[in-house]
Amino acid sequence: VQLVESGGGLVEAGGSLRLSCVVSGIITRIEHMAWYRQAPGKQREFVAAVDSGTSYAGSVKGRFSVSRDSAKNAVWLQMNSLKTEDTGVYYCYTYYQGRNLWGQGTQVTVSS
What we know:
Layout: E1 2-6, E2 9-12, E3 17-24, E4 33-38, E5 45-50, E6 54-56, E7 64-69, E8 74-79, E9 88-96, E10 99-102, E11 106-111
Parallel strand pairs: 2-11
Antiparallel strand pairs: 1-3, 3-8, 4-5, 4-9, 5-6, 7-8, 9-10, 9-11
């Protein structure tokens, strides 16, 4: 099983990025998928999740939007109005058959 993220990069404050994550090796529908991020020197933190609904960290609510394609076990994170404090490595996450599964991460850097 692999989670592969893409779409990170360097963007100016106020700009947008769209992150993608595709899960391979699982043919059944994954119920819960989420995004986390880790800034330099800080702990990994929750960003957004999608299952029967969507949920967001307070710091990104109204700016970020999570969506999914259940048939493909893919999830996206649309990030708008980016701020310098959004800089970090973004990780895709899911829980499947008793295991916590993480992607390798994709770097997002927001410059002022």
